[in-house]
């Protein structure tokens, strides 16, 4: 079974970092476009990339928040597919993991 206090600390830290990253991305996206058409084209391309990054960060925030809920209800570290314990190494690498390695490789 996972060390829940350590997991919560790691997840809280990860969540704060991702929220700050998302805030920075949203701030960059809110900047007005340049009047120069060639600069505007480059900015639009950059904005598309930032929007993609924001979507990825948002999904990770949601996954991390769900992991924190599992810490609270005592189910953190249990595979949602087979019910086995998720290895400590996997949880250290991806604390928001919901599947053990065997189940993750199936899907």
UniProtKB/TrEMBL annotation:
GO molecular function terms attached to this record: zinc ion binding
Keyword Zinc-finger attributed: yes
Stretches for region Disordered: 29-52
Record-annotated DnaK suppressor protein-like N-terminal domain positions: 9-71
InterPro entries for this protein: DksA-like_N, Znf_DskA_TraR
Taxonomic superkingdom: Bacteria
Pfam families: DksA-like_N (PF21173), zf-dskA_traR (PF01258)
Coiled-coil ranges per UniProt: 1-28
Domain Zinc finger DksA/TraR C4-type intervals: 74-106
Keyword Metal-binding: yes
Keyword annotations: Coiled coil, Metal-binding, Zinc, Zinc-finger
Stretches annotated zinc finger (dksA C4-type): 79-103
Protein name per Swiss-Prot or TrEMBL: TraR/DksA family transcriptional regulator
Protein species of origin: Alteraurantiacibacter aquimixticola
Classification lineage: Bacteria, Pseudomonadati, Pseudomonadota, Alphaproteobacteria, Sphingomonadales
């Amino acid at each position: 079974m996972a060390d829940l206090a350590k997991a919560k600390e790691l997840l809280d830290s990860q969540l704060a970092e991702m929220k700050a990253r998302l805030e920075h991305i949203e701030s960059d996206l809110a900047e007005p476009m340049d009047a120069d058409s060639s600069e505007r084209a480059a900015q639009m391309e950059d904005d598309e990339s930032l929007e993609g990054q924001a979507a990825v960060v948002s999904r990770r925030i949601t996954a991390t928040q769900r992991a924190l809920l599992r810490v609270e209800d005592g189910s953190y570290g249990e595979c949602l597919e087979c019910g086995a314990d998720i290895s400590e190494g996997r949880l250290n690498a991806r604390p928001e993991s919901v599947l053990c390695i065997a189940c993750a490789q199936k899907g």
